[in-house]
């Protein structure tokens, strides 16, 4: 499984949004500039986030976006599903003519189903808050400059 660029940028933008004051709408332009993401691409991403209830938009000259839920309620699974759809490995059910169907069933049960269960476990339990906390603990300190 490989996350597409859309998902990586979406997670980046949500982490940026989570780091901002929650009472102030944040413009997509400012998120795009801070994270070097195309504004048009970010608009497509946030359209999916609006439809799935991850973000809310505020219209007007002081408008922008804010999280629709708290960062600890937004899971990576919900972000991936909003942007890519189903993230599970698919059941291809390919059996050669001379092959025994039990082999295909065994592969499905022991490989595909197990991987999908583990993906669900990891992505459904990893939140935006955890990701933001990890980033703050491991990377924000490196960006400080001393004279």
Give an overview of the whole structure:
This protein has 147 residues and is mainly alpha-helical. The chain is 55% helix and 5% strand. The chain is built from 6 helices and 2 strands. The termini are far apart.
What topology emerges from the helices and strands here?
Layout: H1 5-19, H2 28-35, H3 39-51, E1 55-58, E2 64-67, H4 76-84, H5 101-125, H6 128-138
Antiparallel strand pairs: 1-2
Helix pairs in contact: 1-2, 1-3, 1-4, 1-6
N-C termini distance: 44 Å
Strand content: 5-15%
Alpha plus pi helix count: 6
Radius of gyration equals 19 Å
Helix content: 55-70%
Decide which structural class fits the backbone. Answer: mainly alpha
Which strand order does the major sheet show? 1-2
Unreliable stretches covering 5 or more consecutive residues = none
Characterize the main sheet: 2 strands, antiparallel
Number of strands: 2
Principal-axis shape equals: elongated
Mean pLDDT: 88
SSE string, helices as H and strands as E: HHHEEHHH
Quick structural gist:
The chain has 147 residues and is mainly alpha-helical. Helices cover 55% and strands 5% of the residues.
Tag the structure with descriptive keywords:
mainly alpha; 147 residues; two-stranded antiparallel sheet; 55% helix; single chain; 5% strand; elongated
